[in-house]
Amino acid sequence: MLGYEYAITNCGASGTTMMRNGNLPYWNTQQYTNSLNSSPDIVIIMLGSNDSNPSNWPIQTNYIPDYESLINQYRNLPSHPRVYLNTLLTVYSNGNFGITDPIVTGQLCPIIRQIARRRKATAH
Fold first, then answer.
1. What value does the mean pLDDT take over residues 3-13?
2. Under DSSP, is residue 124 helix (H, G, I), strand (E, B) or coil?
3. Partners of 81 in the β-ladder
4. 3-state SS, one letter per residue, for 8-69
5. How confident is the model at residue 116 (pLDDT cuts 50, 70, 90)?
6. With a threshold of 0.85, does the pTM exceed it?
7. Residue 101 parent element (H or E)
8. How many CB atoms lie within 10 A of CB 58?
9. What is the mean pLDDT of residues 77-98?
10. Cα separation of 105 and 42, whole Å?
């Protein structure tokens, strides 16, 4: 869809959290380091479902500042990429790692849209 001018780099890390104090922070992964070193023109962020699990949700107040910090990390790269924020997928089964849809789409998706408005990013 982007055309031949773009090379797509997948720097996703399954099971990671947005929050730096989460049980498996994206910030500590090789994928994160690779993403910073890739000189991106466009960055698409989709993190948060794992932040909603019972071991992470008690520290949810860290979610917004950590998300905004991640956006800043990318925007301050020499390539000055456009940043897009993806809202999270609906959780159809309850019980997988304690992740439930009322928290994911009921609370986190509105937070992501709020961050996008405040940080002038695009949310989808």
1. 91
2. coil
3. none
4. CCCCCCCCCECCCCCCCEHHHCHHHHHHHHCCCCEEEECCCHHHHCCCCHHHHHHHHHHHHH
5. very high
6. yes
7. helix 101-103
8. 7
9. 89
10. 25
Q: How far is the C-alpha of 15 from the C-alpha of 27, rounded, in Å?
A: 12
DSSP 8-state symbol, 94: S
What is the H or E stretch that residue 83 is in? strand 82-85
- Which residue shows structure tokens 């992964």? 29
CB 114 within 8 A of CB 63: no
The helix/strand/coil state of 77 is coil
Spatial distance between the Cα atoms of 19 and 67, rounded to a whole number of angstroms? 7
Distance CA 117, CA 58 (A): 25
- pLDDT confidence bin for 95, thresholds 50/70/90: low
Kindly tell me if the per-residue pLDDT of 29 is higher than 80.
yes
